[in-house]
Amino acid sequence: MKPCICKTRLLKSIHAEDGAVTVDWVVLTAAVVSLGMIVGLVIWNNSGSIAQMIASYIGSQEVVTTF
Known about the structure:
Elements (H helix, E strand, L loop, with lengths): L4 H11 L4 H41 L7
Organism: Rhodobacter aestuarii
Protein name: Flp pilus assembly protein, pilin Flp
Keywords: Membrane, Transmembrane, Transmembrane helix
């Protein structure tokens, strides 16, 4: 009886290291993008109160039109 071709191909692909660097880069890129999104979210959430303070400060300033 012939061995299953699918099984041998599967075992070869599992033990092959041809795409290992590609997988590493994909995981590394996903980690960097995730970290960037988390930092962006933190900055976005905390910038609302600062924007309100700046808006109230600018709104309270008077413009002198005479010299």
